[in-house]
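User: Is it possible to get a 3D structure for a protein together with its bound compound? The compound here is magnesium ion. I've pasted both below.
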Amino acid sequence: MAEANQETTPRQYINIELLTEALRTGNIVQFRNEFLDMHPYNQAEFFKELDEEDRLNIYHYLSPEEMAGLFENLDGEEHEYREVLAEMSPSYAADMLSNMYADDAVDVLNELEKDQVVSYLTIMDKEAADEIKELLHYEEYTAGSIMTTEYIAIVANQTVRSAMHILKNEAPRAETIYYVYVIDEDRHLVGVLSLRDLIVSEDDAMISEIMYDRVVSVSVGEDQEEVARMMRDYNFLALPVVDFQDHLLGIITVDDIMDVMEEEASDDYSKLAGIADLDSIDRNPFTAAKKRLPWLVILLFLGMFTASLIGRFEETLNKVAILAVFIPLIAGMAGNTGTQALAVAVRGIATGDLEKENKWKIILREAGTGFITGLTCGVLITLVVYFWKGDLFLGCLVGISIFITLIVATLAGSLVPLIMHRLNIDPAVASGPFITTINDIISILIYFGIATAFMSYLIE
Ligand code: ATP
Ligand code: MG
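Assistant: Yes, that's possible. Here is the predicted structure of the complex:
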């Protein structure tokens, strides 16, 4: 997704040469003319490419307020935020942070050291600092940590005309003006209106009459993934966040949810591959190896277990050496089908679609899929082995093994993540390599089990 994004960046909107030249030659007027015309996202893209010297110039050319818009779009890594903020004078940085939307400022501050955060908060504009302090309390990955307090709330006992008046006054500071939330005197959330609802209503209509009072909200401790799911299901542009007594605390807007979705998706993907955190490209080999090694070592021992399993069938193997030829084929097929089923299951769990389904229905469907794929591959391989080795019994043995293996491996690939999810273990850690190894073991047991049982037919 990220790659597609880069390709579609409207480069034509950024006149890089002109900007860089104006920046280096100190042509402030020209730089500001061109730069402030760009969308903050493009400004941020330009900013990311600069070296320290150019960045230091920019801080002189732009006010903290102008810098705030750029920073809201920066999406930086930890060290980037730390480095860049350190280049600014403390008062410039603090000014910029107070001009940012509170939730974006919190994202930046969360990447800094504690004492640095405190020092910025003390020199910052007091009102902004208070808002940010409140948000900093919330646990990472919860609704509270991604919400913003810059929403518009009105009371029910007024006309549309006066509500529009309030809206007009508050609009410059609000993160979104499309939804107006209605609260009572104790700040309980009692209703919601969209801007469209307001515009199409009579000026003299009372808010209490036109508002929608079955408000969908999330509680402040809710997992951000769940918030993303609700946002997708209800198709709202923002969701209100409440405490356990239904007091309105903030809102979460759809743009922040898009970041959550990307974060969670890449998170699940890397866990699927057995890496705790997707390695960024610039990480050095030692840190990357440290993350991957624990998994590889566990898998190494599981693999030795598989080897010792094969060893237990040594007698069978000694008598019919040809059996060994098909071990990689059967184990490989088990791994392949298990990984396919696993990918589908993990995605289903992540999107919440699987939870709504009846468990037996899932098991039946997976068994059915395994049956069809197993039968097809089994018959195919039976014929191939028969024509290749001229041994119908050997063909049937490999074919039947593949048939049973594919059914079991498909079931394992989809059920293991479901069971893990039930046990409250993140299903994405039931990663690909893990399932592959389990399926190796199962498939070898099946293959040699059948072979040993019908040994007499093989030796003729
Ligand atoms: P529509 O889709 O009906 O044409 P719209 O596109 O203008 O409306 P939507 O964002 O789809 O607006 O919101 C639809 C309706 O849902 C609005 O009337 C709004 O009042 C209501 N609404 C907004 N947020 C919430 C919420 N959290 N809970 C319940 N209703 C909400
Ligand atoms: Mg709509």
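DSSP finds 24 helices and six strands in the chain. Confidence is low (pLDDT under 50) at residues 1-9.
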